[in-house]
């Protein structure tokens, strides 16, 4: 039934049923199984506190495989289209950007998607000090920061050693969990 589940909850019916084939919908229904929810994408009484764009990016983790790249690109594009910073905590933005970084980096062999991964790394980094302040109340130790990590990896592959050092020092200063010291030491060896 088209008027139930998470798709209806987020008012995505028109987009969902026109954008995806019956086979794609069946695949997504079978794959999406959120713990503790009696609702699926298209059935049941769904409720959620996350924004529509955050919900859509969370689907990328459920559905991504090389064979499903086009399906996931449709979802990511819609998430970006609907994205708004209104009423979102910095922590929500952090995880929204993280999902897009991880998704687009998997497609990095296409320069367009590598650039999108870099864009979202930089967006996530731009709010990192605000996120760390929010997270310090909930976490005894800050988690890994995918934006810093991924951008450091990209710069390492490009042999931009000074940039690797800058990125890692900033992440280290903000106390994000990670192997920042080791990355800095490795980059310094290449500078000498």
């Amino acid at each position: 039934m088209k008027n139930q589940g998470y798709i209806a909850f987020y008012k995505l019916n028109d987009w969902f049923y026109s954008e995806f084939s019956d086979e794609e919908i069946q695949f997504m229904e079978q794959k999406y199984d959120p713990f503790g929810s009696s609702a699926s994408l298209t059935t049941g009484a769904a409720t959620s506190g996350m924004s529509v764009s955050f919900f859509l990016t969370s689907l990328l983790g459920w559905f991504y495989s090389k064979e499903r790249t086009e399906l996931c690109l449709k979802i990511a594009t819609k998430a970006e289209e609907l994205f708004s910073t209104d009423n979102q905590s910095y922590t929500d933005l952090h995880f929204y950007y993280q999902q897009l970084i991880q998704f687009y980096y998997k497609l990095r062999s296409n320069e367009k998607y590598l650039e999108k991964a870099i864009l979202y790394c930089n967006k996530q980094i731009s709010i990192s000090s605000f996120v760390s302040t929010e997270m310090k109340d909930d976490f005894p130790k800050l988690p890994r920061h995918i934006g810093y990590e991924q951008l450091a990896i990209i710069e390492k592959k490009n042999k931009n050693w000074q940039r690797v050092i800058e990125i890692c020092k900033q992440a280290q200063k903000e106390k994000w969990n990670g192997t920042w010291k080791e990355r800095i030491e490795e980059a310094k060896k290449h500078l000498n």
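The chain has a mean pLDDT of 92. The longest helix spans residues 90-106.
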